[in-house]
Structures are given as C-alpha cells and as structure tokens.
Amino acid sequence: MIDPGLKDKVVLITGGNNPFGIGAAIARAFASHGAHVFIHYFRQETNLLDVDHPQEWEHEPGLDFYYRQQGKTADDVVASIRESGAEAESWEGDLGQPENVVLLFDQAEKAFGHVDILVNNAAEYIADTFLPLDVSGGQEGEVWAGGPSTMTIDVESHDRHFAVNTRAAVILMAKFARRIIERGVNWGRIVNISADCAWGCPKEISYRASKYALESYSRSAAAELGPYGITVNVVSPGPVQSGYISPEVEEALIPDIPIRRVGRPEDIANAVVFFASEQAGWITGQVLFVHGGHRMALGQ
Questions:
Q1: Which domain holds residue 89?
Q2: Exactly one of 41, 207, 212, 244 is catalytic; which is it?
Q3: Is 207 one of the annotated active-site residues of the chain?
Q4: DSSP 256
Q5: Which residues are paired to 88 by β-bridges?
Q6: Which of 114, 149, 185, 297 yields a CA-CA distance of 20 to 30 A from 102?
Q7: d(CA 189, CA 65)
Q8: What CA–CA distance (Å, rounded) separates 263 from 294?
Q9: pLDDT above 70 covers what percent of the chain?
C-alpha cells in the first residue's frame, strides 16, 4: 500500500458536522492514515424542515433529512474517529463572522499545537437568481424539481455567500501560510473545495460565483506560497450524496453522469487526501473535477 505520509500530521477541516457529509468523510479519511483531525462546524438555523412529516424523512435522503444532519454538532463524527484509534477535536463557530477565523486557528493550535494541512470545506448555500420572484417563484423557480426555492439576489444573500465561501477561506489560507513560514518547516498543504459549474449556474448564482472566486484565490496562493513548500489545490465535486439528494433527484441526475451514479463523500475525501499526500508534492494550483464525468456530454 502506498504511504501518503500523513501519520501525525495535523489537519484542520471546516464544515464537518454532517455525519453523511463531505467534511466528515474527509476527516475520517485523514484519521485512517494516522493524522490528527480538528473539525470546525456551524449549526445554521433553518426554517425549511418539513415539520408536518418528520418521520417520512427520518432515513430517506432529501432536503429535510439533509437539514437535520446539518443541525447536529460534530460530536458523532469526532466519536467515530476516536473509536478508530485516531485523535480528533472540534469547535463550533460562524465563519461569516471575521473574529471566528482567528479563533478557529487558536482552538486548533490549543488542541494539537500546530496545523499542517488546511481543508476549506465549509460553505454557505442559498439558491438565488437575478430574476424577480414573480418570474422565478413556484415550481419554475426551484433549482430542481422538489429542490430549494430560489430567491432574488440581494445584499444579504450575496454577502453571506462571499463571507463564508470566499473571505473566510482565503483569510484562513493567509493565516495558515504565516504559521507555516514562521515555523520554517517548508511543508504545508491547502485543499479548497469548490463545485462543478463554478464558472456560472442559473438559480445558484452567488454560491457558484463565490466558489469561482475561491478558485482564483487558490491559483494565486499556489504561485505565492510554493517557495515555502506549501501546495494549494482545489477539488471540485459534482453531485455528491451528502443526504440532500432524494431518490427522484438522483434518478434524474444519473443520465448526465457517465459513470452512472452520484458521488459519495468518500470520492471527494480520496481526492483531498491525495492532494495532501507526499505523492502530490509537485502538484499545485490545480482544479480537479471529481464528478464522474458530470456534464461532460454538455461540453462543460
């Protein structure tokens, strides 16, 4: 078996409380290679739960199931990692608040002394559009049939996306770089999670744009931080079953995926671990699409 060289490395992962999510899968993957894991999370309140049919959505994937998982702490994820024999800690904070970016590193260093690997996975998502509500509302305004309804973009929806998906990630990158340089270790890894179609997607305009901005920052960071032994890469997932894809939506998605299945969180985790590994030491500034060929038939 190839040794990725991650034993005793300290990895900081944002957005890891959903036990069925990408962040949790990344945390478990690093732990399986002997890394020490610090998980950030934030339980965002939502009024989108289907309170009239809670039992119907208790086990079947869909938006209600997903929102329930997002409302959990990271305790279950941390417990599962500790049960495997690895070390894990967690901390909750809203990365839309700038002061929490500083506090996050303080908490991670308090737990493990330093951070070797940064994975920016946390994300804000609101389906928004340029269209007025009287045009985009109702069924026609949904991102997909039965999916979240869109809202017309406003200052709040724009700023919230860029505060969490872009600003928090890039400030964490800068603070991480300073720590690596001051330690003089000449080794560090940054892996940022984007999304396929980040170059533009109707009805998800702010989410995709904020991820595209993150890709630009990542390329600049790769160029500037390379001389200090820090690689910076991006993993861009397609549709991944983190609990939000209902059976009906999954059936509709599969024809656009050549491998004929939606992604699993572990598919993304494997790519992230590779970028953090010794085997990827001469790879930087890259965007890797991990999407089963999603949208390839459309030339995108």
A1: 10-125+155-298
A2: 207
A3: yes
A4: G
A5: 37
A6: 185
A7: 33
A8: 10
A9: 88
